[in-house]
Amino acid sequence: MQDVLRRHDIPSCLKICAGTDGSVTQLLEVLTGKNVKVETIAQHVVKATPEIAGLLNIETGEDVNDRLVTLKVDDIVYVLAKSLAPINRIPQGVKDDLMRADIPIGRILREHKLETRRDILKMEIVHRDFFGDIPVLSREYKIIYENSVLMWINECFPIDGRWRM
Amino acid sequence: MQDVLRRHDIPSCLKICAGTDGSVTQLLEVLTGKNVKVETIAQHVVKATPEIAGLLNIETGEDVNDRLVTLKVDDIVYVLAKSLAPINRIPQGVKDDLMRADIPIGRILREHKLETRRDILKMEIVHRDFFGDIPVLSREYKIIYENSVLMWINECFPIDGRWRM
Fold first, then answer.
1. CA–CA separation, B12 vs B6, rounded Å?
2. Are A16 and B16 a contacting pair at CB < 8 A?
3. ipTM beyond 0.90?
């Protein structure tokens, strides 16, 4: 377990969402008893920079779907999630759902019956303009499918009282 | 989400563990901040009955690893878990770990880098002799690997005050 999850100043419900190797959306729905709403802030296809190519194990210049969403319950943002997915590696049906956006990634993978694994890369406390002065627990992980990176994901969880649920 | 997870008489921490499509052991470790201990009650190879063959999509009479364990933290049992795995479908390294027992299944899958998905089949309130009069939330799911059932799992969570953590 990552050390940051042992800190006493981080709310338990946040720790649970940040600590799972399963779907965060699903846990948020269990915790709140309500539906999670995915809201897309930005979604477009970009050419991989050397940095992105490194994260995804692809060549610089390849097409990548770059998506930034929030996960909300009752208009409260619990997660800001950025995902990068190499277009050529995404199975067709998955691609349509991913680019239509507004569907949580866990649900997309489940509905298309993909077999995957999630490799957690990093967990740290940072700041993000989106959340202003509120400290943020950030985690990065890769979703692996057929031995390749299907998606690199960064989820940011604001550390404050909204997690008392 | 399963209806049983919306009931108000079920402790939140239990709902979280029963509601995840990820590793229960990992969530228990985040919730308690301690290591989970797997204790094997029984582990042996059996010939598939017609019922077991149906659960695993194999032929009657094929060899199946039948394992019953508890997940404990500080000597408190949080989960009683039964798993059935068709011997011929388990990759060799996984088989050794599984039959040596005392390693949580989520950790075995992660360490061998298996890509899988979990299909929840059923969730219900039952009684189990192991927990005496305490009602039990039971869930059944399959771990799918290479389009076949790698494991059928039944996890039983006692519904009582032990989940106040």
1. 10
2. yes
3. no
